[in-house]
Design brief:
7 helices, mainly alpha
Length: about 200
C-alpha cells in the first residue's frame, strides 16, 4: 500500500469541492474546534505543505528549513483556498520527482517522499474538515485514500481498525473523534519514516 502525489491531488480535490462553494462566506469564524479561524487554518495548511516541500528539497539535518509561508493580509477566502491548492500541487510535484532513497527530517522520523505525501494528505483533509465544520459544511474524504494513509502513518492501529470507516479511523487516530470502545486519543503520533526503518 503506497501513498503517492496523486493522493495529494485527490485530497485537494475533495477539500476544494467542499469549500469552493463557500468562499463567499465569512472565513473569520472559528474552524471547527480549533482556536484559529477558517482563514488562518487555510494559511496553516499552506505553510505546513510548503515546509514538507522544503524538507524534501533542502534536506537539512535535525530541523526544519528556516522560513515561514503566510497569506497576504486581506486575501479573500477564495485566494486562501487558491494558496492551499498551490502548495498542495507544489508538494505533489516534488514528491513525484524525489528519488525513493531520499530521506528528510521530520520530528516524527526521517521521512521519504511517500511519508511527506501521506502527512500532506492528513493536513489537507483534517484541516479542510475543520474549515468545512466552521462554515457549516461536511467534508466527505476519499475512503480508499484515508485507508492507505492510515496504514502508512499509523501501522500499529491500521489492522485493528480494518472494519472501521477509513475516514473515521483516520480522524480517531489523529485525536479528532472517539469510536465505539475507543475513547478520543489525547496523545498520538504518526510514523513519518518508511515502514521497517
Amino acid at each position: 500500500m503506497t501513498v503517492t502525489a496523486d493522493d495529494l491531488d485527490s485530497a485537494l480535490a475533495s477539500v476544494v469541492a467542499t469549500l469552493e462553494p463557500a468562499t463567499d462566506r465569512d472565513w473569520s469564524v472559528p474552524a471547527g474546534t480549533l482556536e484559529w479561524d477558517c482563514w488562518h487554518t487555510g494559511e496553516h495548511v499552506a505553510d505546513v505543505l510548503m515546509s514538507y516541500t522544503m524538507q524534501l528539497v533542502a534536506r537539512p539535518d535535525g530541523r526544519y528549513v528556516r522560513f515561514a509561508t503566510s497569506g497576504e493580509k486581506g486575501a479573500s477566502a477564495a485566494e486562501v483556498l487558491e494558496f492551499v491548492g498551490a502548495t498542495v500541487r507544489i508538494l505533489a510535484t516534488v514528491v513525484r520527482t524525489t528519488p525513493p532513497d531520499v530521506r528528510a527530517w521530520h520530528p516524527m522520523g526521517m521521512a521519504d517522499a511517500e511519508g511527506f505525501a501521506a502527512m500532506g494528505c492528513v493536513e489537507t483533509l483534517l484541516h479542510g474538515e475543520d474549515i468545512a465544520e466552521g462554515l457549516g459544511l461536511t467534508l466527505d474524504a476519499p475512503r480508499e485514500l484515508c485507508g492507505r494513509v492510515l496504514a502508512r502513518l499509523f501501522p500499529d492501529e491500521a489492522a485493528a481498525l480494518a472494519t472501521t470507516d477509513p475516514w473515521e479511523a483516520l480522524r480517531w487516530a489523529t485525536g479528532r473523534t472517539e469510536l465505539p470502545g475507543r475513547p478520543r486519543r489525547e496523545r498520538w503520533r504518526w510514523y513519518a519514516a518508511p515502514l521497517g526503518e
